[in-house]
Amino acid sequence: DAMVIQNPRYQVTQFGKPVTLSCSQTLNHNVMYWYQQKSSQAPKLLFHYYDKDFNNEADTPDNFQSRRPNTSFCFLDIRSPGLGDAAMYLCATSMGIGKQGAKLYEQFFGPGTRLTVL
Amino acid sequence: RKEVEQDPGPFNVPEGATVAFNCTYSNSASQSFFWYRQDCRKEPKLLMSVYSSGNEDGRFTAQLNRASQYISLLIRDSKLSDSATYLCVVNTLYGGATNKLIFGTGTLLAVQP
Q1: Chain A residues with CB inside 8 Å of B40's CB?
Q2: What's the angle, vertex CA A108, arms to CA A105 and CA A114, rounded to 5?
Q3: Distance from CA of A1 to the nearest CA of B (A)
């Protein structure tokens, strides 16, 4: 089945120790997103890739970086995790048509990676 | 004012009840609308898209009122398995070049036996 896969499902890291979360998709969608979701809050968009174009949200800390080496894979790098970065990290994909005035279709989410920072 | 607002609930209803959720959005340029369902500690899953004419999928009915900028979700004959958080999601065009999905904080539904 076509799907969005995230690894690992659970990640424990130490304060300040870099961590990388991965996402892969078999849907052949051209848009991939990373969200951060804390308990009882809405998913918060960190950034997204439209094809190879990286789009950072204005309030995403510099501590968060992303890479998309090909259509199928996208990585979230947290350079120096703090206690406040403990959260569920959700990867999502969608089809987007055109680069301006694009209409984004519904997003499909991976199961998430729950990050704990000690 | 939040871009997408929902009553956080919780809505506690008995099995078999009909329950309705409303959601308002602030940007009149918003183009697409969705309801997602999120179970505890799981990822959001698309429940249904919301079309201008309204749409129905089994026990679920979604409606859009562009003039008043609100979206609704009606669940009939509630089941225990409907217990979850329901997220209202709006697709909005920014600056003519960027689309963004904005999530509401969700409405918690608890169906009681």
Answers
A1: none
A2: 145
A3: 16
